[in-house]
Amino acid sequence: MTNALAGPLGEALGRGSLAILAYAILGVLLLIAGFYVVDMATPGRLSKVIQHDRNPNAALLTASGLAAIGLIVAASIWSSGGALQEGLLATLVFGLTGIVVQALGTLLFDRVAGIKVRDLVREPSLQPGAVLLAVTHLAIGLITAVAVI
């Protein structure tokens, strides 16, 4: 009786596990980068505004921005076609592009809608402008993700 994990199945599982680990690490790093970009757009330390001030606007905007980046990372992985090195590079480039697009979208939102993100996160109660910007984040993430595919 041969050990099934010593053959092609074991090799495929090993490669697959390493690929998952590599994409997960890259995805987490991109989410952290996205968090810091959102942090730059808000007054004060974002983690403090969310944890200590319990600001729902900051939490919503951060969550929507990170969800949008997650969509872009997932689409990049999907479109990689199993080529690990090319997929990781594409995920890095598309993820960073998505973060930049999110930042530009936030700046345009400030100008077009006339609702300042910095003002939103100073409000202690959930604001309609934060909901609008959160949906905008998700829409930008979805558009960018579909463009990747």
UniProtKB/TrEMBL annotation:
InterPro entries: DUF350. The keyword Transmembrane applies. Keywords: Cell membrane, Membrane, Transmembrane, Transmembrane helix. It is found in: Cell membrane. The keyword Transcription does not apply. One of its GO terms (cellular component) is plasma membrane. The chain crosses the membrane at residues 20-38, 58-81, 87-109, 130-148. It is a multi-pass membrane protein. Belongs to the UPF0719 family. This is DUF350 domain-containing protein. It comes from Sphaerisporangium melleum.
